[in-house]
Amino acid sequence: MTLLSALVCVVLLALATVSFAADSARIDALVDDAISRKLIAGGVVLIGSRDRVVFQRAYGRVSPLPDASPMTTDTIFDLASLTKVLATTPSILKLAEEGRLSLLDPVEKWFPELSGHGKENVLVLNLLTHTSGLDDIPLAKEEPMKSAIQGAALQKLKGEVGSRFRYADLNFILLAELVKRATGAGIDLYSQASFYRPLGMAETSFNPAERLRCSPTLRDEQLVQGEVQDEQARRLGGVAGHAGLFSTAGDLAKFCRMMLSGGVLDGKRVLAQRTVEQMTAPYFARGGEVIRGLGWDISSPYSSPRGLGFSKVSFGHTGYSGSSIWIDPVSDTFVILLTARVDYKNVHQFNQLRAELSTLASVLFTVPPELREMAHLHDQ
């Protein structure tokens, strides 16, 4: 590293940490206010870049019970729908990268049970972008996956395939089964071997063993700890393509850093850069009103964690349990919010919390692009 490069790095570090106490106080106030309004019992906020974590803090308690333990930065959370982008989507894309399937495969190729039911135009790509025309259905207690496939076969598609955006867990329930049919292994085993172990994500799994470290979630007005909140995922044994994954903020930071680094982390490549670019490229629906990546959200009714400061190419996802991730490659920033959600009815206020956190992160912790480019150029 040249002297000039070293000086630029010092400047970048100074910019990232200047007035840290005052900056962090604004985030503290935002989360503490959500706790005081009983929107959440507590949570963990983590903000970082491809190189490092710049902010990490735990707030409140792991549940609303009076004797609940204090939240810690290594608390394990039910990630809910973040499962879609942390397990299912990368698994499908890695299989495509290896030539074991194609995103343009008709879904009937992998699910012959759908043949003859008017699903011939539905592609794997449409499942990933929620443009399949399928809607959610309740799964049977007995043979739930069989009921999911039968339900997909028998329902009439709504709208034109590829143009109608309808967020549906069924798309990702089928994708997880596709992974199993393509590899012979469940989504839990395949994602663990392909991503979590290579990235050092030791706290990430389905059906976590360390249940006592998990933040409880509300289910039928009762708190459950270490068991997936989502009923459909429970019927599938806790391992599903749409929900069921558990993790910590620190583990999720490793995944976000990998995404910002084009598929590699600490010298270990888990996805090709082209695959990451393909995963986060925009796919349009509703005449351009909705923009999705493959699995990832870009601009849709679910995009509250983008806030006001991140770029138009930023991407992320939310989870019903109170989790969200948002990643901006332009500003080299990601924001993770994991919470012990208490109020599930006031969706607007919860989405406002997500948005305001990302807006603060984009103001307080992003580095000007020209300075990042200077550091990059002088490091060549």
N/C terminus separation: 8 Å
Number of domains: 1
The CATH superfamily is known as DD-peptidase/beta-lactamase superfamily
How do the SSEs run, as a string of H and E? HHEEEHHHHHHEEEHEHEEHEEEEEEHH
How does CATH name the architecture? 3-Layer(aba) Sandwich
Can you summarize this structure?
39% of the residues lie in helices and 17% in strands. The relative contact order is 0.17.
Report on the architecture of this protein.
The chain is 39% helix and 17% strand. With 380 residues, it is an alpha+beta fold. The chain has one domain: Beta-lactamase. The strands form five sheets. The chain has a five-stranded antiparallel sheet with strand order 2-1-15-14-13, sandwiched between helices. A three-stranded antiparallel sheet has the order 3-7-4. It has a three-stranded antiparallel sheet with strand order 10-11-12, with no helix packed on it. A hairpin with a 4-residue loop joins strand 10 and strand 11.
Provide keyphrases for this structure:
380 residues, alpha+beta, five-stranded antiparallel beta sheet, 13 helices, disordered C terminus
Tell me the layout of helices and strands.
Blueprint: H1 3-17, H2 20-36, E1 40-48, E2 53-60, E3 77-78, H3 83-97, H4 107-110, H5 124-128, H6 144-154, H7 169-183, H8 187-199, E4 205-206, E5 217-219, E6 222-224, H9 231-235, E7 245-247, H10 249-260, E8 264-265, E9 268-269, H11 273-279, E10 283-285, E11 290-292, E12 297-299, E13 315-319, E14 323-328, E15 333-341, H12 347-364, H13 369-378
